[in-house]
Every structure is written in C-alpha cells, then in structure tokens.
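Anyone? Bumping this.
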Amino acid sequence: MQIKRCPFCGGQARVIPEARLGHLGYTVYCEGCVAESGTYATKEKAMHSWNCRFMERPSSSDGTAWRMLSVNEVAGPAWLNCNVKTVYKLTKRADFPAIRVGEKVIRIPAGLLEEWILKQSQERLD
Ligand SMILES: [Zn+2]
C-alpha cells in the first residue's frame, strides 16, 4: 500500500511504531504539520485510515470541522495572519467559506477554511 501525502499540508507521511497503553501500534505522522492517523494494531490499518482522510472533510471525525471562527480569529496568527479588513474582503468572495449568523456577525467554519487554504496554496500566484 502506498501512503498518500498529507491532506492538510501536502507533506510527506511516515508510519511509526508506537507503544500506547502497553500495546505496540502504528501511527502515521505527517512530517510537515501535526496531522496524525491515530494508533492502529497494524501498519496496514494505520495507512488505510490515513489514506481515507482524503475522502473526509478535515477534522470531521473529531467534530472540529464546524468549529466557528470569528473574523478576528481568522485574521490572527493561528490562521491567515493578516489585517481584519482583508478577511472581510475575503468573505465577499464566492469561494470563501464564510456564513452570516444574524445580521452583522460573520463566522468561518474552521474545517472549510482549512480546505480553502489548502486549495489556495496549490494555485499559482499571479
Ligand atoms: Zn501535514
């Protein structure tokens, strides 16, 4: 089985034997970011779980895909690290995952923002 690249950052993934709770298992780690597969009894299971992430929305298994970020959070260092005004401009783009909650409040689902960033990073800069 071929191990796929990281669905979040495109980095190289590696299977690593790991002892957890007294049992030896295998975990797939990304060398580029903090993504990991969870620990499985066999290498094959760990790799399968990792490769299947490509079908899933990022973080959907742990419920964080729908964690809602504020415009300020998205502008902060953990995400786009840019001006708040820039984020407001982005929210007007059709492909940017922003929703309106009530009249003035804009929220950005973390999982969809991850996907959007991934997509942007694969496009060529003008
Ligand atoms: Zn990664």
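Late reply, but here is one note on the structure posted above: Helices lie at 43-52, 71-75, 84-90, 110-122.
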